[in-house]
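Figure S7 source data.
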Amino acid sequence: MGIALQSRGVPVVLHEASTYPRHRVCGEFISGVSDATLETLGIGECLADATQLQTASWNDHAGRLTEMQAPGRGISRWKLDERLQRRFVSLGGTLITNSRIACSPSVIWAAGRPRRPCSWLGLKCHARNLQLSHDLEMFTSPGGYIGLAKIEDGMVNICGLFKARPTRGAKGSALLLTMLRESSLHALADRLEMADVDESSFCGVAGFQLGKQEGPGFCIGDAASMIPPFTGNGMSMAFESAECALQPALDFASGRKSWLEASATSTASQASRFKRRLLSAMILHRLLMNPAALRITSALARRRCLPFQALLHLVR
Ligand SMILES: Cc1cc2nc3c(=O)[nH]c(=O)nc-3n(C[C@H](O)[C@H](O)[C@H](O)COP(=O)(O)OP(=O)(O)OC[C@H]3O[C@@H](n4cnc5c(N)ncnc54)[C@H](O)[C@@H]3O)c2cc1C
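C-alpha coordinates for the predicted flavin-adenine dinucleotide complex:
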Protein backbone atom coordinates (compact mmCIF):
# COMPACT_ATOMS: atom_id res chain seq x y z
CA MET A 1 0.00 0.00 0.00
CA GLY A 2 2.83 2.33 0.94
CA ILE A 3 4.70 1.57 -2.29
CA ALA A 4 1.58 2.09 -4.42
CA LEU A 5 0.77 5.45 -2.80
CA GLN A 6 4.33 6.70 -2.67
CA SER A 7 4.90 5.89 -6.36
CA ARG A 8 1.79 7.96 -7.20
CA GLY A 9 3.17 11.00 -5.41
CA VAL A 10 1.39 10.58 -2.06
CA PRO A 11 3.92 10.86 0.77
CA VAL A 12 3.60 7.94 3.20
CA VAL A 13 4.98 7.41 6.69
CA LEU A 14 5.04 3.72 7.59
CA HIS A 15 5.19 2.74 11.25
CA GLU A 16 6.31 -0.82 11.93
CA ALA A 17 6.07 -2.07 15.50
CA SER A 18 9.03 -4.40 14.93
CA THR A 19 11.93 -4.45 12.43
CA TYR A 20 12.86 -5.93 9.04
CA PRO A 21 13.80 -8.54 8.10
CA ARG A 22 12.38 -11.12 10.45
CA HIS A 23 10.86 -14.56 10.25
CA ARG A 24 7.05 -14.64 10.23
CA VAL A 25 4.51 -17.40 10.75
CA CYS A 26 3.42 -17.89 7.15
CA GLY A 27 3.28 -20.85 4.76
CA GLU A 28 5.25 -18.67 2.29
CA PHE A 29 3.16 -20.18 -0.50
CA ILE A 30 1.62 -17.20 -2.28
CA SER A 31 -1.22 -18.25 -4.48
CA GLY A 32 -4.06 -16.52 -6.27
CA VAL A 33 -2.74 -12.99 -6.76
CA SER A 34 -2.63 -11.85 -10.39
CA ASP A 35 0.37 -10.25 -12.10
CA ALA A 36 -1.91 -7.27 -12.82
CA THR A 37 -2.47 -6.68 -9.08
CA LEU A 38 1.26 -6.89 -8.37
CA GLU A 39 1.99 -4.43 -11.19
CA THR A 40 -0.73 -2.00 -10.00
CA LEU A 41 0.90 -2.00 -6.57
CA GLY A 42 4.37 -1.70 -8.13
CA ILE A 43 5.73 -4.81 -6.42
CA GLY A 44 5.99 -7.28 -9.32
CA GLU A 45 9.79 -7.08 -9.24
CA CYS A 46 9.91 -8.06 -5.56
CA LEU A 47 8.35 -11.41 -6.45
CA ALA A 48 9.81 -11.88 -9.93
CA ASP A 49 12.42 -14.50 -8.92
CA ALA A 50 10.22 -16.33 -6.39
CA THR A 51 10.24 -20.11 -6.83
CA GLN A 52 7.50 -21.04 -9.29
CA LEU A 53 5.32 -23.72 -7.70
CA GLN A 54 2.92 -25.87 -9.70
CA THR A 55 2.23 -29.28 -8.20
CA ALA A 56 0.58 -30.04 -4.88
CA SER A 57 -0.50 -33.07 -2.92
CA TRP A 58 -3.02 -33.51 -0.09
CA ASN A 59 -2.18 -36.15 2.46
CA ASP A 60 -3.32 -37.48 5.80
CA HIS A 61 -1.60 -39.71 8.35
CA ALA A 62 -2.22 -42.75 6.13
CA GLY A 63 -0.76 -41.32 2.92
CA ARG A 64 -1.68 -39.40 -0.20
CA LEU A 65 -5.28 -38.35 -0.80
CA THR A 66 -4.83 -36.58 -4.10
CA GLU A 67 -2.48 -34.68 -6.37
CA MET A 68 -3.37 -31.47 -8.16
CA GLN A 69 -2.15 -28.34 -9.86
CA ALA A 70 -1.87 -25.43 -7.42
CA PRO A 71 0.17 -22.64 -9.00
CA GLY A 72 1.89 -20.29 -6.60
CA ARG A 73 5.07 -18.48 -5.69
CA GLY A 74 7.42 -19.66 -2.94
CA ILE A 75 9.45 -16.98 -1.16
CA SER A 76 10.36 -16.48 2.49
CA ARG A 77 8.81 -13.56 4.33
CA TRP A 78 12.34 -12.72 5.45
CA LYS A 79 13.28 -12.03 1.84
CA LEU A 80 9.96 -10.62 0.61
CA ASP A 81 9.32 -8.20 3.49
CA GLU A 82 12.92 -6.96 3.27
CA ARG A 83 12.51 -6.29 -0.46
CA LEU A 84 9.20 -4.51 0.03
CA GLN A 85 10.60 -2.21 2.69
CA ARG A 86 13.65 -1.42 0.53
CA ARG A 87 11.42 -0.58 -2.43
CA PHE A 88 9.25 1.65 -0.23
CA VAL A 89 12.27 3.54 1.11
CA SER A 90 13.82 3.83 -2.38
CA LEU A 91 10.66 5.63 -3.51
CA GLY A 92 11.12 8.21 -0.76
CA GLY A 93 8.74 6.65 1.79
CA THR A 94 9.50 7.25 5.47
CA LEU A 95 9.87 4.01 7.40
CA ILE A 96 9.91 4.16 11.20
CA THR A 97 10.65 0.79 12.77
CA ASN A 98 10.11 -0.14 16.43
CA SER A 99 7.17 2.24 16.33
CA ARG A 100 3.83 0.87 17.58
CA ILE A 101 1.07 3.37 16.90
CA ALA A 102 -2.67 3.58 17.51
CA CYS A 103 -5.27 3.77 14.75
CA SER A 104 -6.52 7.29 13.95
CA PRO A 105 -7.96 9.15 10.93
CA SER A 106 -5.57 9.15 7.93
CA VAL A 107 -3.89 5.98 9.23
CA ILE A 108 -4.44 3.00 6.94
CA TRP A 109 -4.53 0.11 9.39
CA ALA A 110 -2.36 -2.72 8.04
CA ALA A 111 -1.37 -4.05 11.46
CA GLY A 112 -2.15 -7.71 10.77
CA ARG A 113 -4.37 -10.08 12.76
CA PRO A 114 -5.96 -8.40 15.77
CA ARG A 115 -5.26 -10.15 19.08
CA ARG A 116 -8.32 -12.14 20.10
CA PRO A 117 -8.76 -15.15 22.37
CA CYS A 118 -8.65 -18.34 20.35
CA SER A 119 -7.55 -21.93 20.32
CA TRP A 120 -5.17 -21.73 17.31
CA LEU A 121 -1.43 -22.08 17.34
CA GLY A 122 0.55 -21.27 14.19
CA LEU A 123 4.13 -22.62 13.91
CA LYS A 124 6.73 -22.35 11.20
CA CYS A 125 10.39 -23.07 10.44
CA HIS A 126 12.74 -23.54 7.49
CA ALA A 127 14.65 -26.72 6.71
CA ARG A 128 17.22 -27.98 4.23
CA ASN A 129 17.76 -31.52 2.97
CA LEU A 130 14.06 -32.23 2.99
CA GLN A 131 12.91 -33.85 -0.26
CA LEU A 132 9.38 -32.97 -1.39
CA SER A 133 7.31 -35.14 -3.72
CA HIS A 134 5.45 -32.02 -4.92
CA ASP A 135 6.14 -28.27 -4.84
CA LEU A 136 3.60 -28.06 -2.04
CA GLU A 137 2.68 -30.90 0.30
CA MET A 138 -0.35 -30.41 2.54
CA PHE A 139 -1.15 -32.70 5.47
CA THR A 140 -4.45 -32.78 7.32
CA SER A 141 -5.32 -34.24 10.69
CA PRO A 142 -8.02 -33.57 13.28
CA GLY A 143 -5.34 -31.77 15.34
CA GLY A 144 -4.46 -29.31 12.60
CA TYR A 145 -3.02 -28.97 9.11
CA ILE A 146 0.48 -28.30 7.87
CA GLY A 147 2.04 -27.30 4.57
CA LEU A 148 5.55 -27.83 3.19
CA ALA A 149 6.47 -25.45 0.38
CA LYS A 150 9.62 -24.94 -1.64
CA ILE A 151 11.08 -21.46 -1.17
CA GLU A 152 14.45 -20.02 -2.19
CA ASP A 153 17.95 -21.58 -2.15
CA GLY A 154 16.72 -25.17 -1.84
CA MET A 155 14.98 -24.44 1.45
CA VAL A 156 11.59 -25.78 2.46
CA ASN A 157 9.17 -23.82 4.62
CA ILE A 158 7.17 -25.89 7.08
CA CYS A 159 4.15 -24.15 8.53
CA GLY A 160 1.13 -25.46 10.38
CA LEU A 161 -2.02 -24.38 12.13
CA PHE A 162 -2.84 -26.53 15.14
CA LYS A 163 -5.45 -26.68 17.84
CA ALA A 164 -3.51 -25.31 20.80
CA ARG A 165 -2.96 -27.81 23.64
CA PRO A 166 -0.48 -28.24 26.50
CA THR A 167 2.98 -29.17 25.17
CA ARG A 168 5.04 -29.72 28.33
CA GLY A 169 7.52 -26.90 27.65
CA ALA A 170 8.63 -28.03 24.15
CA LYS A 171 10.21 -25.21 22.10
CA GLY A 172 11.42 -24.62 18.53
CA SER A 173 11.26 -27.53 16.11
CA ALA A 174 10.73 -29.86 19.11
CA LEU A 175 7.37 -28.16 19.62
CA LEU A 176 6.51 -28.63 15.94
CA LEU A 177 7.50 -32.30 16.16
CA THR A 178 5.32 -32.72 19.25
CA MET A 179 2.35 -31.20 17.45
CA LEU A 180 2.93 -33.43 14.41
CA ARG A 181 3.16 -36.60 16.48
CA GLU A 182 0.10 -35.66 18.54
CA SER A 183 -1.69 -35.14 15.24
CA SER A 184 -0.66 -38.70 14.20
CA LEU A 185 1.50 -37.33 11.36
CA HIS A 186 4.41 -39.63 12.33
CA ALA A 187 5.85 -40.14 8.83
CA LEU A 188 6.10 -36.39 8.37
CA ALA A 189 7.65 -35.96 11.83
CA ASP A 190 10.26 -38.63 10.92
CA ARG A 191 11.13 -36.73 7.72
CA LEU A 192 11.50 -33.50 9.66
CA GLU A 193 13.77 -35.17 12.21
CA MET A 194 16.09 -36.25 9.37
CA ALA A 195 16.21 -32.75 7.83
CA ASP A 196 18.46 -29.81 8.76
CA VAL A 197 16.11 -27.44 10.53
CA ASP A 198 17.14 -23.80 10.83
CA GLU A 199 16.16 -23.20 14.45
CA SER A 200 16.66 -19.45 14.05
CA SER A 201 13.76 -19.40 11.58
CA PHE A 202 11.35 -20.97 14.06
CA CYS A 203 8.43 -18.75 15.10
CA GLY A 204 4.96 -19.17 16.49
CA VAL A 205 1.77 -17.22 16.86
CA ALA A 206 -1.41 -17.58 18.90
CA GLY A 207 -4.30 -15.33 19.90
CA PHE A 208 -6.13 -14.69 16.62
CA GLN A 209 -9.40 -15.66 15.01
CA LEU A 210 -10.06 -16.45 11.39
CA GLY A 211 -12.59 -14.75 9.10
CA LYS A 212 -13.85 -11.19 8.99
CA GLN A 213 -12.20 -8.93 11.59
CA GLU A 214 -13.65 -5.95 13.39
CA GLY A 215 -10.57 -3.82 12.79
CA PRO A 216 -10.56 -0.12 13.63
CA GLY A 217 -11.18 2.25 10.71
CA PHE A 218 -9.61 1.96 7.25
CA CYS A 219 -8.23 -1.62 7.32
CA ILE A 220 -6.40 -3.78 4.82
CA GLY A 221 -4.80 -7.24 4.97
CA ASP A 222 -5.35 -9.49 7.97
CA ALA A 223 -6.59 -6.47 9.95
CA ALA A 224 -9.66 -6.54 7.68
CA SER A 225 -10.12 -10.29 7.17
CA MET A 226 -8.08 -13.41 7.69
CA ILE A 227 -8.70 -16.31 5.35
CA PRO A 228 -7.90 -19.79 6.77
CA PRO A 229 -4.23 -20.50 6.02
CA PHE A 230 -4.78 -23.81 4.18
CA THR A 231 -5.82 -21.73 1.15
CA GLY A 232 -2.39 -20.12 0.74
CA ASN A 233 -4.33 -16.99 -0.18
CA GLY A 234 -3.68 -14.69 2.82
CA MET A 235 -0.82 -12.74 1.26
CA SER A 236 -2.79 -12.48 -1.99
CA MET A 237 -5.70 -11.04 -0.03
CA ALA A 238 -3.38 -8.58 1.67
CA PHE A 239 -2.14 -7.41 -1.76
CA GLU A 240 -5.62 -7.39 -3.28
CA SER A 241 -7.03 -5.44 -0.33
CA ALA A 242 -4.34 -2.81 -0.92
CA GLU A 243 -5.50 -2.68 -4.54
CA CYS A 244 -9.11 -2.18 -3.34
CA ALA A 245 -7.95 0.59 -0.99
CA LEU A 246 -5.72 2.39 -3.49
CA GLN A 247 -8.25 4.53 -5.37
CA PRO A 248 -10.19 5.52 -2.21
CA ALA A 249 -6.90 6.48 -0.54
CA LEU A 250 -5.86 8.53 -3.59
CA ASP A 251 -9.30 10.22 -3.55
CA PHE A 252 -8.75 11.13 0.11
CA ALA A 253 -5.25 12.43 -0.60
CA SER A 254 -6.53 14.68 -3.40
CA GLY A 255 -9.48 15.93 -1.32
CA ARG A 256 -12.16 14.23 -3.45
CA LYS A 257 -13.32 12.04 -0.54
CA SER A 258 -13.44 12.43 3.21
CA TRP A 259 -11.56 9.86 5.31
CA LEU A 260 -14.83 8.18 6.27
CA GLU A 261 -16.00 8.00 2.63
CA ALA A 262 -12.65 6.61 1.50
CA SER A 263 -12.68 4.02 4.27
CA ALA A 264 -16.27 2.96 3.50
CA THR A 265 -15.53 2.62 -0.25
CA SER A 266 -12.47 0.48 0.45
CA THR A 267 -14.37 -1.73 2.92
CA ALA A 268 -17.24 -2.25 0.44
CA SER A 269 -14.83 -3.07 -2.37
CA GLN A 270 -13.01 -5.66 -0.22
CA ALA A 271 -16.32 -7.16 0.96
CA SER A 272 -17.55 -7.80 -2.57
CA ARG A 273 -14.17 -9.09 -3.77
CA PHE A 274 -13.59 -11.50 -0.87
CA LYS A 275 -17.11 -12.58 0.18
CA ARG A 276 -17.23 -15.89 -1.71
CA ARG A 277 -13.72 -17.06 -0.99
CA LEU A 278 -13.90 -16.17 2.71
CA LEU A 279 -17.21 -17.96 3.20
CA SER A 280 -16.07 -21.05 1.25
CA ALA A 281 -12.74 -21.17 3.09
CA MET A 282 -14.38 -20.87 6.51
CA ILE A 283 -16.75 -23.77 5.72
CA LEU A 284 -13.92 -25.95 4.39
CA HIS A 285 -11.74 -25.06 7.38
CA ARG A 286 -14.45 -26.26 9.78
CA LEU A 287 -14.71 -29.53 7.85
CA LEU A 288 -10.93 -29.96 7.95
CA MET A 289 -10.90 -29.48 11.72
CA ASN A 290 -13.84 -31.76 12.47
CA PRO A 291 -12.70 -35.37 13.04
CA ALA A 292 -15.90 -36.98 11.69
CA ALA A 293 -16.08 -34.70 8.65
CA LEU A 294 -12.36 -35.23 8.00
CA ARG A 295 -12.82 -39.03 8.02
CA ILE A 296 -15.60 -38.73 5.45
CA THR A 297 -13.75 -36.26 3.22
CA SER A 298 -10.59 -38.41 3.33
CA ALA A 299 -12.60 -41.49 2.31
CA LEU A 300 -14.23 -39.54 -0.52
CA ALA A 301 -10.87 -38.16 -1.64
CA ARG A 302 -9.36 -41.67 -1.78
CA ARG A 303 -12.25 -42.73 -4.04
CA ARG A 304 -11.52 -39.64 -6.18
CA CYS A 305 -14.97 -38.25 -5.37
CA LEU A 306 -13.81 -34.80 -4.21
CA PRO A 307 -13.41 -32.04 -6.82
CA PHE A 308 -10.19 -30.61 -5.32
CA GLN A 309 -9.47 -28.40 -8.30
CA ALA A 310 -12.94 -26.81 -8.14
CA LEU A 311 -12.63 -26.36 -4.37
CA LEU A 312 -9.29 -24.62 -4.86
CA HIS A 313 -10.94 -22.27 -7.34
CA LEU A 314 -13.65 -21.45 -4.76
CA VAL A 315 -11.08 -20.12 -2.27
CA ARG A 316 -9.30 -17.87 -4.80
C1 LIG B 1 -0.21 -20.58 10.22
C2 LIG B 1 -0.35 -19.61 9.10
C3 LIG B 1 0.02 -19.99 7.81
C4 LIG B 1 -0.13 -19.09 6.75
N1 LIG B 1 0.24 -19.48 5.48
C5 LIG B 1 0.08 -18.65 4.45
C6 LIG B 1 0.48 -19.03 3.13
O1 LIG B 1 1.01 -20.10 2.89
N2 LIG B 1 0.28 -18.14 2.12
C7 LIG B 1 -0.29 -16.92 2.33
O2 LIG B 1 -0.47 -16.17 1.36
N3 LIG B 1 -0.67 -16.51 3.56
C8 LIG B 1 -0.49 -17.35 4.63
N4 LIG B 1 -0.84 -16.94 5.89
C9 LIG B 1 -1.46 -15.62 6.05
C10 LIG B 1 -0.48 -14.47 5.88
O3 LIG B 1 0.64 -14.66 6.72
C11 LIG B 1 -1.19 -13.17 6.23
O4 LIG B 1 -2.41 -13.12 5.52
C12 LIG B 1 -0.35 -11.96 5.86
O5 LIG B 1 0.83 -11.91 6.63
C13 LIG B 1 -1.15 -10.69 6.09
O6 LIG B 1 -0.34 -9.57 5.86
P1 LIG B 1 -0.60 -8.22 6.65
O7 LIG B 1 0.36 -7.25 6.07
O8 LIG B 1 -2.04 -7.90 6.67
O9 LIG B 1 -0.21 -8.54 8.17
P2 LIG B 1 1.21 -8.92 8.78
O10 LIG B 1 2.05 -9.64 7.78
O11 LIG B 1 0.90 -9.58 10.07
O12 LIG B 1 1.91 -7.51 9.03
C14 LIG B 1 1.40 -6.61 9.98
C15 LIG B 1 2.56 -5.78 10.50
O13 LIG B 1 2.04 -4.74 11.33
C16 LIG B 1 2.89 -4.58 12.45
N5 LIG B 1 2.08 -3.99 13.53
C17 LIG B 1 1.14 -4.59 14.29
N6 LIG B 1 0.57 -3.71 15.14
C18 LIG B 1 1.17 -2.52 14.90
C19 LIG B 1 1.01 -1.21 15.45
N7 LIG B 1 0.11 -0.95 16.40
N8 LIG B 1 1.81 -0.21 14.98
C20 LIG B 1 2.72 -0.45 14.01
N9 LIG B 1 2.91 -1.67 13.44
C21 LIG B 1 2.13 -2.69 13.87
C22 LIG B 1 3.38 -5.99 12.76
O14 LIG B 1 4.60 -5.96 13.48
C23 LIG B 1 3.53 -6.58 11.35
O15 LIG B 1 4.84 -6.42 10.85
C24 LIG B 1 -0.68 -17.80 6.97
C25 LIG B 1 -1.04 -17.41 8.27
C26 LIG B 1 -0.87 -18.30 9.33
C27 LIG B 1 -1.25 -17.88 10.72
